[in-house]
Design brief:
The chain is built from eleven helices and eight strands. The chain has a five-stranded mixed beta sheet. Strands 6-7-8 form a three-stranded parallel beta sheet, sandwiched between helices. It is globular, with a radius of gyration of 20 Å. The chain starts with a strand and ends in a 6-residue tail after the last helix.
Length: 279
């Protein structure tokens, strides 16, 4: 295994459902000094469990439909041609990842790995721009909501920023009840730190000091990884009081939804967060 730098196993819900946990544990028991990490989804759910073997020369070898048995694991550790997965050329040529650029690439439970890949630099930049500058940058970006209405994000932030109130609360809606809709889950499982950073930026721009992530209780992997990311961010001074010495206070809490489809709608969602029946 001299050529292997690190082994990564996709342990998002799609991978776990296909048996990735057994693959992860067996690889860890056989890999000697080579680190083996669980990551988010690489975007090829049909090929799970997937394993990425990072080599010392900077390249990677992928294996698909890996079984948690001796034959499969030994084949990977020997860098065998059997079971290798080739990412479709047409996808590699056309795909440009933004929101999920680190999903499957980093250990979602390691905040230091997120930092090493540019994490929290955008938040620091936001503090340089000041709230008005952040909102203006959002307007110029053309970013729109992904929930269907496509409302301009910069405009929405400007409305809340202009509102005078003793306390402002930011809500991140990760409740997706549509069959087959797993966008929020994929982000939270693969890169929960980016959600925290984005919420802190939004909170700074609009003057909110508290944030809630409303997420389905049916997403245990996402919830656990997000909670660890929140705890680690607090310990690192990225959440809490006086972020980066700017005097800005912002913290995040998780609120679990009970699976009601209607709570994907914002007023029902807010009612549920308050502890009432969402309607």
């Amino acid at each position: 295994m001299a050529d292997i730098r690190r082994i990564k196993v996709g342990t998002a819900s799609c991978g776990v459902a296909a048996g990735a946990d057994a693959v992860l544990e067996l690889l860890r028991s056989r890999s000697e000094s080579v680190p083996v990490e669980g990551t988010g989804c690489l975007g090829h759910c049909y090929a799970e469990p997937m394993v990425e073997v990072e080599l010392n020369d900077g390249t990677s070898v992928f294996y698909s439909s890996v079984k948690g048995d001796d034959k499969s694991v030994n084949s990977i550790l020997a860098l065998s041609e059997e079971g290798r997965f080739q990412i479709p050329a047409e996808r590699a040529a056309l795909e440009k990842l933004n929101v999920t650029r680190l999903s499957g690439r980093i250990d979602p439970k390691d905040i230091e790995e997120y930092k090493a890949n540019g994490g929290f630099t955008a938040l620091k930049k936001a503090f340089e721009l000041k709230p008005e500058g952040v909102i203006e940058a959002m307007k110029k970006s053309g970013l729109r909501g992904r929930g269907g209405a496509g409302f301009p994000t910069g405009n929405k932030w400007s409305f809340l920023a202009a509102k005078q109130a003793e306390e402002k609360i930011l809500i991140m809606n990760a409740d997706e009840g549509d069959p087959g809709a797993f966008m929020d889950r994929s982000v939270l499982e693969g890169d929960p730190h980016c959600v925290i950073e984005a919420m802190a930026i939004a909170g700074y721009a609009v003057g909110a000091t508290k944030g809630f992530v409303y997420v389905r209780a049916e997403y245990p992997i996402a919830v656990n990884r997000l909670q660890k990311a929140i705890d680690d961010a607090r310990a690192a001074g990225i959440l809490g009081t006086n972020l980066f010495g700017t005097g800005f206070d912002f913290d995040v809490e998780i609120r679990l939804g009970a699976g009601a489809f209607v709570c994907g709608e914002e007023t029902a969602l807010m009612t549920s967060i308050e502890g009432n029946r969402g309607e």
